[in-house]
Amino acid sequence: MTAVGKRRLRRVVVLAGALLVTFVAVLLASYPLHRASQDRADDRFRQMSIEVTRDFTRFWPAGAETVNRPVVSATCSHAFSDVKAQELTTCPNLAELDLSQCDFVDPRALARLSALRVRTLSLAGTPVDDGVLPVLATWPALRDLNLDRTGVTAGGVRAFLGQRQMKRLSVSGAKLSPAEAKELRDAFPDVKIQF
Question: Which domains are seen in the chain, by residue range?
Answer without folding.
Answer: 39-194 (3.80.10.10)
